[in-house]
Design a protein that fits this description.
The complex is a heterotrimer of chains A (292), B (225) and C (179).
Chain A: H1 2-27, E1 30-35, E2 41-46, E3 49-56, E4 60-66, E5 73-77, E6 81-86, E7 98-105, E8 109-114, E9 118-122, E10 125-130, E11 135-140, E12 144-148, E13 153-166, E14 171-184, E15 189-191, E16 198-202, E17 208-211, E18 219-224, E19 229-233, E20 239-245, E21 250-252, E22 261-263, E23 266-271, E24 276-282, E25 287-291
Parallel strand pairs in A: 2-6, 2-8, 3-7, 3-9, 8-10, 9-11, 10-12, 11-13, 12-13, 13-14, 14-15, 14-16, 15-17, 16-18, 17-19, 18-24, 19-25, 20-24, 21-25
Antiparallel strand pairs in A: 1-4, 4-7, 5-6, 20-23, 22-23
Chain B: H1 13-21, H2 29-38, H3 40-57, H4 72-81, H5 95-99, H6 101-104, H7 106-117, H8 130-164, H9 170-196, H10 201-219, H11 221-224
Chain C: H1 7-18, H2 22-44, H3 47-64, H4 74-93, H5 123-129, H6 132-143, H7 148-155, H8 159-176
The chains are: A mainly beta (292), B mainly alpha (225), C mainly alpha (179).
């Protein structure tokens, strides 16, 4: 076995090296690399194109990417606080596409801002802002604060805390967050996570969809003006549901359960052992409680 | 950065302006000067900036029109009018309290009863008992104040938006304006509903929620420039 | 009533005005009105609104005069108050003129298609043509001498943004003036 192990190990190392090289090649030329402290503060700015952040366990930051010759990549600061990105033109003229890939310590505190560039981040915590780029966050984090004006946002992260806002963009919250404050103005808000303990979800004119079963002790608050609130729940769900609308329709799909209280504009329902507290209110949007 | 320059690259916009106005950090001035001696493009641009600044510094003050002296009587009139003894603070109504004037009379009674009974907020599911009605009053005032607080913050942020508007990217400005229109439309509908049904705490909670959304949108203005 | 120029007398006049003496306040008005007009005129871009703003500034000064402690000169105190009044007016008026002009910034102030610009255009006229935000920062920095940090505090924009606005204003003026 030993005779086979060594060549296999060499082959594995070569394969890993090849994969890494291919990955590096795919990420683009090396722009900057330096040693950093375990939890540096990193500010990133770019306008158009894409930026991908990958949290890793190395004590360094490596930036790769493809930047047109007309544009200026900058990197400034020290090993505990730095800023990098693509210089913006003073006259705000349209910027060509720049693609950056940044590997940085998992414990980094990131502040990332783009205009139209898409954002993808894995195992990274911090603040992410874009005007119209698409955002996808995955992996594990300590906090996530993401804002987009018109881009879509997909948060699929294991984290204690998520604060997410979009305007017209759609917002999807999944993964395993615990405390979530998510809202849109007109975009659709979709929540599908079994681990949320505190949830504040809202929209003004976009629909809000929740699918799943609130865990025991969870407290959810849904608020909408003209958009609908749609709660798709398993028949085994356990919670007290308080639904109210000023002029919107309330559709109770659990019609076999007698409400605790009911008026023309409100329904209060206890399902299962009533372990979670869920409130939903709208002005004129419909509220639907539907069994899966 | 300046150390790396040679005649093939140029001073940045910031460096040119700072050099022209004499605010370049001392350690950067010599390399900048050396570059300007070698680079006709930068030297010409800096010279143009300096020409502008010279003209600005030599600008005489605008000549006030004769009507400036004639302003004093109207200023005096406004000052004299402001000498009227102001109303005592209790008579100065905030806008929120004007909106809940229907329940204003309940305030003193409600505060005493609520304090004595230790009642919490309770949703009115049917015909209210007096104790619940009093608690609803306190709740009503609380949410009205909350909505008013958000409204004030929204107005302050709106003022800042107008000042910063020129710095916003066009796509960001369009997105913000669109979102504000959506939220303002919701707020208008809610205020109309509240005018018809001022004692409805659910409406006021929705209004507070809408104002919170508006404040959220306006806070993103700072990020958009 | 003649304007007051002696330092000791100014202190006495200010004290009397703080105590409610309107005639004393009129002295202060006569002394400082021209400077306040110049400030308002440059920031707002036209005489009529500038005159209106002068009134607002002095009414505000009367209301706030008791807060003047003499740590700066009265002229400086009035000047700072004047800047705030004008900025509030610019914020609340929401005029289209205060917004950046539509379209590409590079078209602003550019030469006409024929390659000629009006040779008679002078600096004041060019200044009046700047968008409100850029004019505000330019006037406050290059004419009134405020630092970028002070401008940032007064206007609520970041110092870096104020710098960028200033460069933009200078570039636009240079194009208008054919420098």
């Amino acid at each position: 076995m030993r005779k086979l192990f060594l060549p296999a190990a060499v082959a594995l190392a070569c394969w890993a090296s090849t994969v890494a090289a291919q990955s590096a090649a795919a990420d683009g030329p090396l722009l900057r690399a330096r040693h950093v402290v375990p939890a540096p503060q990193v500010k990133v700015f770019t306008t158009a194109g894409s930026v991908r952040l990958v949290g890793w366990d190395a004590d360094s930051i490596v930036v790769r990417g493809r930047v047109p010759r007309s544009e200026q990549f900058y990197f400034a600061g020290n090993d505990s606080s730095m800023k990098l990105g693509i210089d913006e033109h003073v006259d705000n003229r349209a910027m060509p596409r720049c693609d950056l890939v940044i590997y940085l310590p998992r414990r980094s505190r990131v502040s990332l801002k783009t205009v139209t560039a898409d954002i993808a981040a894995r195992d990274v915590s911090g603040w992410f802002y874009t005007v119209s780029g698409a955002v996808r966050l995955t992996g594990s984090a300590t906090t996530i604060d993401v804002q987009s004006m018109s881009g879509n946002v997909d948060v699929d992260v294991t984290t204690p805390w998520v604060h997410a806002r979009t305007g017209d963009g759609n917002l999807l919250v999944r993964g395993e967050p615990q405390d979530v404050d998510a809202s849109t103005i007109g975009g659709t808000l979709s929540i599908a996570s079994p681990t949320i303990l505190r949830g504040q979800f809202g929209s003004v004119s976009g629909d809000v969809h929740y699918a799943g079963s609130p865990s025991a002790g969870a407290i959810f608050d849904f608020s909408n003006h003209s958009g609908a609130i749609d709660l798709l729940l398993p028949r085994s769900v356990s919670g007290v549901f308080t639904l109210s609308s000023i002029v919107g329709a309330i559709e109770n799909g659990f019609s076999n359960i007698r409400p605790i209280a009911s008026t023309p504009h409100s329904v209060r329902l206890s399902l299962g052992r009533g372990r979670a507290q869920v409130a939903a209110r709208t002005f004129k949007g419909a509220i639907r409680l539907r069994p899966q | 950065m300046i150390d790396m320059l040679d005649a093939r690259s140029h001073l940045t916009e910031e460096e040119r302006h700072a050099y022209a106005e004499g605010s370049l950090p001392p350690e950067q001035a010599p390399p900048a000067e050396a570059h300007l001696r070698a680079c006709a493009v930068c030297a010409s641009d800096v010279a143009r900036i300096r020409t502008l600044m010279t003209r600005v510094h030599g600008l005489p003050a605008p000549v006030p029109p004769a009507t400036l002296d004639a302003l004093w009587p109207s200023i005096r009139a406004r000052i004299e009018a402001s000498k009227v003894v102001p109303l005592p603070p209790v008579a100065l109504q905030t806008q929120a309290r004007r909106r809940v004037r229907h329940v204003g009379a309940w305030v003193a009674i409600a505060a005493a009863i609520v304090a004595a009974a230790g009642l919490g907020v309770h949703t009115n599911w049917g015909r209210a008992s007096p104790a619940v009605a009093v608690a609803d009053t306190a709740s009503l005032i609380a949410v009205a104040d909350s909505a008013h607080a958000y409204e004030e913050e929204a107005q302050m942020l709106l003022n800042q938006l107008e000042l910063r508007r020129s710095m916003l990217r066009p796509e960001a400005a369009a997105a913000i304006d669109h979102d504000l229109r959506v939220v303002d439309s919701a707020i208008a509908e809610l205020e109309e509903a509240i005018a018809r049904d001022p004692n409805n705490p659910a409406l006021r909670r929705l209004l507070a929620s809408s104002y919170r959304q508006k404040v959220d949108v306006l806070k993103r203005v700072g990020n958009a420039s | 009533m003649a304007p007051v120029n002696d330092v000791e007398v100014i202190d006495g006049v200010v004290r009397r005005a703080q105590q409610g003496d309107v005639e004393a306040f009129e002295s202060l008005y006569r002394t400082h009105a021209a400077a306040i007009f110049a400030l308002c005129r440059r920031m707002i871009g036209n005489d009529a609104e500038a005159l209106d703003l002068v009134q607002h500034v002095f009414v505000r000064a009367w209301e706030r005069l008791t807060t003047f402690r003499g740590q700066s000169s009265l002229a400086t105190w009035l000047h700072r108050l004047g800047v705030n009044v004008v900025l509030e007016q610019l914020r609340s008026s929401r005029r289209d003129a205060f917004r950046l002009v539509e379209g590409d910034d590079s078209t602003f102030g550019s030469r006409s298609p024929g390659g000629q610009i009006d040779a008679r255009i002078d600096l004041e006229a060019a200044l009046a043509q700047l968008p409100g935000g850029a004019r505000t920062v330019f006037v406050l920095h290059d004419i009134e001498g405020y630092s970028h940090d002070e401008i940032a505090q007064m206007t609520g924009i970041a110092p870096g943004t104020a710098r960028a606005q200033l460069w933009r204003a200078r570039r636009a003026l240079m194009r208008l003036l054919d420098l």
